[in-house]
Input
Amino acid sequence: MRCLRTLNHLAVVFLVIPMLLQACQQESLEPVPTSIIFQPSATTVATLSITATVPPATETPLPSATLTQPLEKQVEMALIEGVNWYVGIESADGEKLFARNTEESFFPSSLNNIPIAMVVLKILEYRGDSIEDIHAYGIGQNFNTLLERMVVENDPAATDTLVEFAEAYDRLRNYLNWWGLKHTFFYPRRTTVEDQLLALSQIDSGDLLNETFSNYLLQLMGIEAENEERHLSTLKEVLPECDFYNKSGTMGIPMTTPTVISETGVLKCGEQSWYIVIAGTPADPLVALEDIQASIEQFGLVFGNYLRQVILR
Output
């Protein structure tokens, strides 16, 4: 009996050993976890040619189910319910990539500061002023300081000063009508997505202002104030190689003014440009400004990923 038990033990050992060897062999073939990323040194990069199949680190991934949808569907998924949305995306060649309520008037917060700046610069250009001149004189402060305070800092006093300057001889209204911005007003502030898109295209193309003043205004739009939240900054996360010249506005005191988060801008990637306008006002009292902000940020991710994967690939 003792011999039989010994033989049984040996049989079990011989059966188990091959199974253990097979398990170890399979374990050695397990893939390396994707969270472990090889970071080559400068010397290694100089001596090795590595073909990566992972997307660039700058590309913010979206769910694969989302990326397979047309752009219009992706944008619709990003825009939450319970909000009145005013949205337009247009390329420099006039292709409309997305449109919602583009002809309806809405409260734009400080987006109208861009058309004001356009008219002021046009008046100064007509006078024959240069960039050096607008740094040298103005109204109380030089025009450069006033424009920077209005466009970058949303300063109400600077805005009022420049509006009063532009309204003399009815120049503000006449210029806006001449340029086709017939639905943009200041008392009370109203505009449309179509007007905002047209203003952006005219700045980018240089059709209204000379090249120096057009570039000057774009540069002002590219400056971000310390206390300013630019909700479409998510575009830059996805497309860091592109330039985004934008203007944002937020108004969250519903008892005195409309509640709105809005942003407008020119996205330039190499020789290509796109014009983007988005504004959201709560239609449902349960929708908070933070909800609208998060939705606009997601909108930026959607459009940025679309450009990278469909247009700029």
Q: What stands out?
A: The chain is about 50% helix and 15% strand. The chain has one domain: 64-311.
